What does this fold into?
Amino acid sequence: MKFENIEDLEIPIEAAFEMLSEFTFFERMAMRRGVEVSRRNGDAVDGLGSAWDLNVPWRGKTVKMQVDVNRYEKPEVLGFHADAPAIEVQLDVELVALSNHKTRLLMKTDISAKTLTGRLLLQSMKLTRGKIEKRMAGRISEQSRNLEERYRETYAA
It folds into this structure.
């Protein structure tokens, strides 16, 4: 199952990539939402090869997941591969400079099933695809506005 979202940011491409690859920020965000996060490569520099073990609360259970950075092409592409017991997720974030101070963010998500449980999950997601797309678009738009705000606070000051 594939999802695509596009957002235009009022941020230069280099700053957008730098903020999107600031993994400690996203680790803290996940922890605030109840996810247990532990880095597999210690406090290594962020980039290709960064990896995490996650315990994600979902529907009253805890799902163990491993996430790896599998693409890191500065300043245009970040790719993440998530492996859970029933599904695999590939998330690619592509940045395109529209001008000196404007960047297009293209987020592609591809979810595939590994087990029968995963296939059932994907089937139920297909039934509510519109709702999921709307919720994802809202979250990505919210995070995009947060990136713009962080840029203004950090770089424009």
Q: What stands out?
A: The chain has four helices and seven strands. Strands lie at 2-9, 36-39, 51-58, 61-73, 77-83, 87-99, 102-113. The two ends are 42 Å apart (CA to CA). Residues 60 and 142 are 26 Å apart (CA to CA).
